[in-house]
Amino acid sequence: MQFHVRFPRYFNSDAAEQSSRNVLLDSVAAFKRDFGWSPANLRAHLDAYEKLLVSLQMHHTYFTLKCYVNNQDTVSKQVRNQLNDSIASVQARVDRLLIKPDLIKAAGKETKYHYLVEQATQDSGHRLSDKEETVISKLGDEMIAHLAERYDHLMDSIQAGNKSAILKNPDSVLRRTGMLTYYAAYDRHGEVFAGTLIDITGQKTATAKLRGFNSATEMTYQNSLQLPEASVKKLLTELSKQSGVLGDYQRLLSNQVSRATGLKQVHSWDTSLPIGFTAAPMTFTQARSLILTALAPLGKEYIAAFARLLDPANGQLEIAGGPNRMTEFTSVGFPGVPESLYMKSFSGSEREVSRLAHEGGHAVHEQLMSDHVTVPSYKNGPSFLFEAYAIFNELLLIDELEKRAQTREGKAHYTKMFLDKLALEVFTSAEEGEFEQRLYDGVAAGGIHNRNDIDTLYAGIMKPYDLYFAGEPQRRSEWINKRLLYDDPIYNINYLYAALVSCKLYTLQHQDPRGFAIKYTALLQNGFDAPADDLLKKYMGFGLDKDALLKGTLELMKNKTAELRGLLK
Ligand SMILES: [Zn+2]
Predict the structure, then answer these.
(1) Ligand 1 centroid vs 391 CA: distance in angstroms?
(2) pTM for the whole thing?
(3) 270-274 — which CB contacts under 8 Å span 24+ positions?
């Protein structure tokens, strides 16, 4: 199966792209030289700014896709980085202009751009000069990128065996030795990984402080969650008190494995065995039809957009095997720029079908915003909400699979899949979130220096969460395998908040199947012209009250665990 995006949706040829880019970069330069912003022409300037952004994104998306299909294409990579810099510099310039008192005053009467100005004002205390930004970019950001690259190269060079194949091996001795070999392969490089992680942490902290934040975590939570650090810490503490909900599920599985295999002591690596049911891989056509049925509760407009996306004839899909393809699964798009979905490959396994529902969900969300937002910048919002909508798709997909299953074993398999998804998004994200929080605190306070310090920190967090952890000392260095810690620091916490919101959406959809789709579609189409909390309250009737959301999520997990218990009897 080979689906390729139609590049002429962006530009007819490389030559056409280049000449268009030359003109565009001249306009960018002119825009940056324009000092004639006044209350009277504020709207005209912002209109011009948004138009520039759309054009820049058009070129940026074109090169992003070029990089994805050929990771050896260094020229495209270079141009993409230049475009990135142009976008950032135009945005920074506008943000700086918008904090001028006379413009703020004019913006008060401006309905269309009100939120754009409000955001610029809010961030103003943390804004640096162009010169300072250049220094941070050259010293801090480049060093972080370099450290992440070192991590990626070392990881790629380690031959540890295929983890998912090891976990599916029916022989318990081979599973055990396979996993011990797997951990040992990474363990040998533990000190290098620790040094890399500590240095990334130190760099992120220094950068955040230069921007006037107390810590890197404070800065990131504000930017991606719109929440103060104290609130995030409180949720993490609350979750660690509720680890028994995960424990109940782990015990249920452990007992089931013990009964099915005769193993007296069950290990974490024994719990991924199929429970009397294995799904056959799906063709793309089957996956497409399944996804469209599963997501039908989200309404006609949503499904129509998804159907268009998944129709290869429309040239929006880039899904093909082959060499030199970037390991990525993601959507790219912007209002006024054609939407595309890139997947490195598609095997038709349940995991990949779920991934298609998730990443396709990002693409459809972007498409709905593209079709409706009045200001292209309002496409940008807090990451956790994007993830919440995509995870919600995965939950609905599992629901549909469970509904279609003919046997008790099949139903148990999908109920377990649902629970594994919740366990991962809620509890694993909580473990990782707490680990990063304490790692950043510890490094800043000068208390974390080496691999042993990190192992100790990680083990202390994991023990109360994980039934098996105490008996598996090799897992103390599991943090090595958590790529996001290096490639996208302090991102994991987004999945926790996303899971809480997606569980709420899931519950609401089940309570009110008819009314839900209309409200939800309106929410997605709206984009982000207000804080997440306001948008959720306005369209869905609930806010980001973490206690209520957590309660609902744990309730769902308990109910599903009880369901599985019944099916396994
Ligand atoms: Zn996602």
Answers:
(1) 7
(2) 0.93
(3) 270/172, 270/175, 272/164, 272/167, 272/168, 273/167, 273/168, 273/170, 274/168, 274/413
